[in-house]
Design brief:
This protein has 389 residues and is an alpha/beta fold. The chain has 15 helices and 17 strands. It is elongated, with a radius of gyration of 23 Å.
Length: 389
C-alpha cells in the first residue's frame, strides 16, 4: 500500500497541520502514560529538523461535543514540551480567530497544539465546513494518528480534501506491518483472538480464516463457541443471539479454529474468589475467567511453530492478577517464538506492557479499533484519504 509519506513533502518554511493521537490516559489531571505522545515524536522531529513549523491536533477523552475542563489539552502540551525540549504553544479552541492568528504567527521550529477537537460535535460528524476551518491552519496535512484512522472524522478524512496530504511515520509503519503481514505472511501464520464478544470479532474471524494456518480463540467469546458445540458454560458470559453465528464459524473454520481445552473458573469476578480448573464443560455456579494450563501449553506450541503471529484481545481477565496466567503465557510464547509478531493495540498492547514484553514484539499497534478493522480487510477512512505515491 504505497501511500505518500512525510518524506515525499518538502516541509521547509511550511506550516504542517498534523493529526496526532494524543488521547492519553489522565489521572488527577496528570498524564498517566505518554506512550502515544512518544509514538508521534519521529514525525514531529522530522518536520522541525527540516525547517517546518507544526500545528498539532488531537482529541482527548469523550467530551461529547462540549467543552469539558478536565479534558483540555494543556497537560498534553506541557508533557510534549518536556519531551521535545522546546516550548509548545496552545490555543483555547481548535478553530476560529485565535487559532488562525496563532497558526499564522508560527515560524520554522515553532510547535502549536490546538484545543481538543471533540469539543466540537462537527469533528465526529465529519462536517465539511469544520474540516475547511481546520485546513486554514496549515499549508500541508499529515495524518500520524493510526488510532483514529478508522473514523471518518473531519480531522481524519475531511481535511485532506483541502490540503496536500501524506502519512506520518507512525501511520506508515502501522499500514506497512499490518498490510504486508496480511498480503504475504511468512508461514505458518497463527492468529490469536480474545475479547468478550463474537459479535465484535466476527468479521475479523471470517477474514482471518481465509489467511491463517491456525486461529486460536480465547476470552469470553470462547463460551459462545462452547454453547454452539452444545457444551454447558455455567455462569460464563454468552451471547445467546450469536450462537448460530458461532456454529457457522466453527463449520467454516474446521481444524483451523482452535478452542481452549480447559478453563480457569471462578465463582465471581473478584481476585479473592474461589477458583478451579476444569476440562471441557463448565458446571453451574461457575464462570470461565481464563484459559487453563493445558490450553496455555497447546497455544504456546502453536505459537512456537509460527513464523508470523498476530494477536488481538486478551484470553482472560488479565487485569485481575489471579486470572492473568493465560494472557501472560500467550504473551511470553509470542515473545520467545522468533516469529514476526504484531500485537493489535488496545487491551493486548496493555497486556504486553504489563508483562514487560513490549520490546520483544516486532510491532505493537497504537490502534485497537483501527487494527481490528484493518484485519477485517477494510480500507480505513484515514488511510484512504491519503493519496498514493
Amino acid at each position: 500500500m504505497a501511500k505518500r509519506t512525510l518524506r515525499d513533502i518538502d516541509v521547509k518554511g511550511k506550516r504542517v497541520l498534523m493529526r496526532v493521537d494524543f488521547n492519553v490516559p489522565l489521572s488527577d489531571g496528570e498524564i498517566a502514560d505518554n506512550t502515544r505522545i512518544q509514538a508521534a515524536l519521529p514525525s514531529i522531529q522530522y518536520v522541525l529538523d527540516n525547517g517546518g513549523s507544526l500545528v498539532l491536533m488531537s482529541h482527548l477523552g469523550r467530551p461529547k461535543g462540549k467543552v469539558v475542563e478536565d479534558l483540555r489539552m494543556a497537560p498534553v502540551a506541557a508533557r510534549l514540551a518536556k519531551l521535545l525540549g522546546r516550548p509548545v504553544k496552545s490555543t483555547t479552541d481548535c478553530i476560529g480567530p485565535q487559532a488562525e492568528a496563532a497558526a499564522a504567527a508560527l515560524v520554522p521550529g515553532n510547535v502549536l497544539l490546538l484545543e481538543n477537537l471533540r469539543f466540537h460535535p462537527e469533528e465526529k460528524a465529519g462536517d465539511d465546513e469544520f474540516a475547511k476551518k481546520l485546513a486554514r491552519l496549515g499549508d500541508v496535512y499529515i495524518n500520524d494518528a493510526f488510532g483514529t484512522a478508522h473514523r471518518a472524522h473531519a480531522s481524519v478524512s475531511g481535511v485532506p480534501k483541502y490540503l496536500d496530504a501524506a502519512a506520518g511515520f507512525l501511520l506508515e509503519k502501522e499500514v506497512q506491518y499490518l498490510g504486508d503481514m496480511l498480503a504475504a505472511p511468512e508461514r505458518p501464520f497463527v492468529a490469536i483472538l480474545g475479547g468478550a464478544k463474537v459479535s465484535d470479532k466476527v468479521t475479523v474471524i471470517e477474514s482471518l480464516l481465509d489467511k491463517v494456518d491456525s486461529l486460536l480463540i480465547g476470552g469470553a467469546m470462547t463460551y459462545t463457541f462452547m454453547r454452539a458445540k452444545g457444551l454447558t458454560t455455567g455462569k460464563s458470559l454468552v451471547e445467546q443471539e450469536r450462537i448460530d453465528l458461532a456454529k457457522d464459524l466453527l463449520a467454516k473454520g474446521g481444524d483451523k479454529l482452535v478452542l481452549p481445552v480447559d478453563h480457569l473458573l471462578a465463582r465471581k469476578i473478584d481476585a479473592t474468589s474461589e477458583t478451579r480448573i476444569v476440562d471441557g464443560e463448565i458446571p453451574d455456579g461457575w464462570m470461565g475467567v481464563d484459559i487453563g494450563p493445558r490450553t496455555c501449553a497447546l497455544y504456546a506450541e502453536k505459537i512456537d511453530s509460527a513464523k508470523t503471529v498476530v494477536w488481538n484481545g486478551p484470553v482472560g481477565i488479565f487485569e485481575i492478577e489471579p486470572f492473568s496466567a493465560g494472557t501472560a503465557a500467550v504473551a511470553e510464547a509470542i515473545a520467545e517464538s522468533g516469529a514476526v509478531s504484531i500485537i493489535g493495540g488496545g487491551d493486548s498492547a496493555a497486556a504486553v506492557k504489563t508483562f514487560g514484553l513490549t520490546d520483544k514484539m516486532t510491532h505493537v499497534s497504537t490502534g485497537g479499533g483501527a487494527s481490528l478493522e484493518f484485519l477485517e480487510g477494510k480500507t480505513l477512512p484515514g488511510v484512504g484519504a491519503i493519496p498514493d505515491k
